[in-house]
Amino acid sequence: MRFACTFAAAYQSSAHPISMTSPASAAPGWHRFITQLSMVVRLVLWILICLCLSRGLLVWLNRPAMDGATTDGEYFEAMLVGLRFDGRIAAFLVTPSVILSALCLRFDLTKATRRTTLAAGFLFTILWLLFGTITLGYFREYHNQFDPHVLGVVYDDFGAVVQTIWKTYPVVRGILVLLALMVFLCWLMRRWLVLAFPRSSPKSPRTLPGKIAWTLGILFVLVVGLRGAVSGRPVQEKDAGCTRDQVLNRCVVNPFFALHYAIGAHRRLLDQGGLDQYLEEKGLMAAFREFAGTDDLKTVDDVFLRKAAGPSGPAPQHIFVVLLESYDGWTMLPQHAAWDIAPNMLRLGAEGGRVTRFVAASRSTMTSLSSVISGLADAGVITNERSRPGQPPLATSIAAQMNGLGFETHFFYSGLGTWQRVEDFAKEQGFKHTHMGPDMPNSPGSNEWGVTDRDLYQHIERTIRPDVPSFSVIMTASNHRPYSIDLAKEGCEVKVPATGYPTFAEGNATLQMLGHHKYSDKCVGEFVQRMDAKAPGCFFALTADHWGRAFPGPRPTMLEQALVPLVLWQKGRVFPDLSGVGGSHYDLGATIIELAAPQGAPYHAIGRNLLGTNPPLHAQSRLWDIGPDSIVAMGGEGRMETLDGRTLTQPPADLPQQLRKYNLVHGLSWWRLIKGNVFPE
């Protein structure tokens, strides 16, 4: 309202100055105003056109991944809703110029207004080109625009990321092309803004209604732009879900808002709002009791307290939990057997036990690894940053509990211990011995992310003493960009099967990627064989940190995206039938501890024993819930499919119970990690 009054007063002063001048003296003020306002209008058009072009390109490049039934009307709807988000960006950037343009009616602020408008144009053009380019690559890898996971780069090994990009992409050529585009687009934008437009300027309003109409008209356009809506509530993130096609919906918001929403979601998880995504604080004590199954609780850790049923088979002397970098579960499905890139995992699963419905805790290495080490769910709070030297391990920490059972605990990682402070975190959570890449041989094929899988496994074989019971968590690195293994030398070259994959080129998997998957499988098979020969009585739990985000076709089903393997193997052990079992990284702690803990021994875990008499039927993580017949995308997206990829029109009957379980596991983990071992007051 204050702006409207000032604006109208400026009109009044411009048309009828206090000093005794002719009416013609109003012309300079009006000319300044209309000239600068025309630059603002052209900048708005520039912003809207650029954002629409980048959205159109994103949709075009990802059209193979979109539903073939998506109609032209839905594409139009997506572009139209996206325009509402674009309008908010444009309005935000030009608001200072609009205010200065209004002041030009009274004062000669032509230079300041012009510079402000040009600066906004340069800033937008440069950021649009940068964000748009990054979005294209990020979407191809992660099937989404910027989301909370993108902020993991803050904690990642920046040097390794840069080296990987350098080796994987033509960086110098890309930078030169990007700089050339920036220069050209900034030049083009400037030429567009300084055009003589309009050819015939509208006349200055002489009457009060005319002045009011101009004022209200400009205010109306500005407010509509800032809100992204003419009436009702402002446009919100949820409005992006405007079509039936989830991939198309992810293209709706522009990169600026995608990053804005990602930062907001990340910040909410780290403050009190993070709990609200799962549970209400006023009902938190009831949630603690519900999860624990008892009212006798003195600390939060009591909620996770269990009693061991006692070993059901030969107690292992050595236990190895191996997280294979980016090992895809779809490669072990019967319909993809023609690739033959998981023969060792399939063989070990047939000889031992295999959970066919198994998911990783999260979608990135450190968030999943942190869950395995800490024994808590990935609640989005960067678990490895929640502990510091001198603090006791979490009660659910698997290493600390295995120490108490008499096992020598080891953590092996192919890369640097400083990566996401993984070595410090492992020590803080109870591992007595940590072994990082620099401690290991460095043969050809090693890269900035770590030594080869073979180097890692051979170091483990030299380290583990057969006569000393041990528990080890192992994280590999070879199946990762820049994919530096000599596949021909290793006999791991891969060809596209003769039938079944006519759209292979439209997917984001490459033969180089799939060959490294086969190398990972080959090395872990060799390791199991050699380690068991050296130290009989070994138990192996072989899984992955996350799915590899690559598929030999444009439209993987939700199940093909979600699955990672879990193969359990010990020579001489008879495994129960695991065909109906569903599990996740959350269940590894209980499963491993129950192998060795005597009957009645207390321990802490959030999951259930996959080898017990009452194993879970659902595989559940922060991202997914996989039941016997269906899969649901958790965390608010709401996608649902049958296990063979058909869209569900009605949610599974037990979805409310699974959502409650999901909220309990993640909400209570959030509280323990953020608030500590005390109940709310």
What does this structure look like?
The chain has 681 residues and is an alpha/beta fold. The strands form four sheets. The chain has a seven-stranded mixed sheet with strand order 3-9-8-2-7-5-6, with helices on both faces. It has a four-stranded antiparallel sheet with strand order 12-13-14-15. It has a two-stranded antiparallel sheet with strand order 1-11. The model is unreliable at 6-26 (pLDDT under 50). Helix 1 packs antiparallel against helix 7 (208-227), helix 3 packs antiparallel against helix 4 (110-142) and helix 3 crosses helix 7 (208-227). It has helices at 2-15, 27-61, 72-103, 110-142, 158-168, 171-193, 208-227, 246-249, 255-270, 273-276, 284-292, 343-351, 365-374, 398-404, 422-428, 453-463, 487-490, 511-534, 558-562, 588-596, 655-674, and strands at residues 305-307, 318-324, 353-354, 357-359, 408-413, 433-435, 470-475, 538-544, 567-569, 582-584, 602-604, 619-620, 624-626, 630-633, 640-642. A hairpin with a 6-residue loop joins strand 14 and strand 15 (640-642). It contains 21 helices and 15 strands. The chain has two domains: 2-16 and 25-269, no CATH class; 317-612, Alkaline Phosphatase, subunit A. It is elongated.
